[in-house]
Amino acid sequence: MKRMLLSLLTAVVCSGLFGQSVDKAKDLLKANKFVEAKDEIDKALLVEKYQKNAEAWYTKVKIYDTIGTNAQLKTQYPDALIQALDALKKYKEYDDKKGVMLVADGYKPVNSIYSGLFQGGAANYNAQKYDDAYRDFAAAVSAINFMYKQGWIKQSMDSTSLLYAGISAEKAGKRDEAVIYYKTIADSGITKISGNDMAEIYKWLSDYYTRKGDKDNAAKYIAIGKSKYPNDIFYDELTLDELRKNGPKDSLFAKYEQINKEHPDSAIYFFNYGLELYQYATDTSTGKRVTNADDLIKKAQDKLLTSVKLNPNYPQSYLVLGQISYNEGVEFQVLGKPKGNTNAEELKKRQEYRALAAKRFDEAIPYLEKVDQLLGNQGKLKRADKVALRDSYDMLVTIYESKKDKPKMDAWTDKYNNVDKVH
Prior knowledge:
This protein is mainly α. 75% of the residues lie in helices and 1% in strands. It has a domain at 313-423. Strand 1 (192-193) and strand 2 form a beta hairpin. Helix 6 (108-126) packs antiparallel against helix 7 (130-149) and helix 12 (234-246) packs antiparallel against helix 13 (249-262). The model is unreliable at 1-19 (pLDDT under 50).
């Protein structure tokens, strides 16, 4: 019996001591002994009954807020403001007096916690401490969300903190966390933050989900991005690239048709479409061409001619148009080669093939010469233009060789041989 009474007495004494520790922490804070105050309130909150005590949590709010905004101490306790925010949430959870302590302080911790987190994030970001910056900006976003829900502020979103939480996370290699903040921006339809355009955020989300293979979200953000920035070709390019990789070709070509209608003045899209049609129509990697190859080639020529009409100074369009006619000419030339003793009907057929070859070669010449007109008189060329010029010369040499026109064949051969020297 004596032992039991002694235990009860000890419990009462300890409870009294812990009660005094909250008051002691408050006194230490008033005396500017911030670290000692922190230790004291931490000790008090280890006691179960104080873990649901609003005054204890609010005392922690004030102590940790003071430490987190103190120039000397905030580097020693970098998460002080985050802990202050967590304590503020606990205070509201257990407070039954309608925030009387907060009102008495003029809501000072509310403003000071958020502004301290934002400033800390900015300082860490500028110092390229992106992990720390992400921690602070993410906490600033959390602070705004919590304070808005409590009705303490009218601003429901801090777009700048959202943006830099995302950027900091991305720079820290945490793409899966960056997406959380970028999504919030895009889902809110924001296009400018502090005067800066958010076009790249919509692109980032579209690319992120495309790479993840999340077709629903990829389609969602491509659609949103395109609605916000209808003249930005990024979204069409992203969709085309995905269809190009995963097909089917009908879907790819349907997308090109849509783009041609949406951008009827875009020469490059007509060129790209024509080129892809031709490449698909002449692909023999499976051992044979597609069944509608001739129709596709005709369509490719139509698209390329539209491209030339829209931009008469784009050499690649002329090159591909020339290649189409040239390649057909070579095919007819092969079919028209003599094959020993044959009957009259076969001889006639081969003669027709040779005539078709000559016709296709004649069709190719103006396009290939146009490449020379656009590029041949220039100085140093970009690699793609140099390749286009060399290929044009090569085909012209072969064409005039087939015509047995030695002067022209020699002239184009000379240009071909000097491409690297001249350009």
